[in-house]
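Issue 218. Parser rejects a valid record. Input:
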Amino acid sequence: MSETVKILIVGAGPAGLSLAIHLKHLGIDAKIIDKKDGLTEDSGGVFLQGQSLISLGYSMAERISKQAHPITSGALSSKSKQLFSFELTELPGQFFAPMTISQNKLEAELLAELRGKALEVNWGQQLREISQDEDKVTVVIKNQDLETDEFDYVIGADGSESTVREQIGFELVRPGNSGDWISANIKLQTANLDSARIQMSMHDGKLTAIFPIDSNGNFRVIRNSTSGDETKTEFWVNALSEFGVIETPEVTGSSRYAVEEKYSSELRHGRVLLVGDAAHSFSPIGGQGFNLGLLESANLAWKLAMVSNGADDDLLDTYSEERGRVAVGSFSKASLAFRMVTIKNGLLQKLRDIFLSTSKSLSPIRDFLASSLKGEDEVYPAGGINREFFDSVRVGDYRELPENQDIDNFFKGIKAGAQFSVHNDRLNALVDDKFFSAFLFDGREKTEDGKQRMLQAYEYLNAQPMMRAYIFSEQEGRFDNLENFILDPNMYLHNQLYASMESVYIVRPDNHIGFRSAPVDLTAIEQWWDDLLSGETE
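Output the parser choked on:
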């Protein structure tokens, strides 16, 4: 292993904390600074998609889910008339359902994870200056005095008004949507709102959304508004009336904040990278920005660790390519949906409502809300660092190959670039955010040649840094004395990935498929791994 890279994370919000956790798991002690004195005191709920929760690692996702509140459905109404709803209870490919949790509780859990691994946040330290050259990043940090330090990489996780982003000169795209938002934490006694449903209401160009925080009558309400006094109970009584609530709520806290929709055209500039709100600002509907930050941290961490282990610095370009593509797509959907829900023209409102209530196809609003709340699988482009082969032929050319049941099953499996997500505790528990997890499946047709291919691949993979390989077979004794052999009677685990034939899936530390082939192709595996290390991603 090469000398560990020296990394500074600016900002200890969820994105910065989760990045530090991932890096610590991978053997890197990043320095974390934040100008605040401590964790946020905001007890309001944040919305967690299943995919962003699992990005924190399976064991941690389980702990957080036990403190969170599950969400089973969503609905959109206009002037108190429901236009459509959708269920979130059945989510193919998602192990954790959507849920809400208070931001301070989530951040406390993240900080506890760091402290459990002997890493602390440097509170009350502010980044004042930052510059870079080809070899290093130089920063000036204000603590009690001004201190100058040098790092290999600096990560801007310092929010929508990021000092890192502004001083380095990341180019921002501003579509022009902006406005004031108000929010409040409320408590209802009669509980006449569904505590497992997110509800949104459009009324004369205003959007009001209510998010359940728990099953005890606590909710988070947000509204875009340039007028009204959010400190007065009457304001929230009027807002809640759109949902049929006639009770006067207990308002436990409220705030007003401005949102300018913007995103950085790139996520990497030399040795400086952006995550979370520093990279993009969304309207709060859908909870996109928060969840994107967690997923960005998981993507970036393993690539920084690979560089620390000797991989070429060019690998970091794939962070900007993969996550930038996702962010721009999410941003475009969110921006269009926001413009549609805030239409002020009465005739256009009526036409919009008719379309939403009668259309069987996904409108921009339906599409955005459903994908945001469900947390549908994110798929990175195949090719580059995400590759798949069948008999040394790219899977994209499979239609030229003879058809049989095993081949058909293989192509039903999770594609390269897609998230690895199955409803199986045993397989999920094997995916480790410290390692690439290679699953070698013996398949139905067992041969001596196949056995040797699997053993050679198993030995090669386990010899690589940040890699752990497992062999699955339904035949007891076929792979004696292997440390990571898993007996799979009746091929139950095989079937989770449609691996009826000999095949291999390699799961990246951020829970995406980096490589798969059928049968096991050691030459293809070696080429893929060598290209990762050399930064050859084309």
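Fixed in the parser; the record now loads. The CA atoms of residues 18 and 237 lie 37 Å apart.
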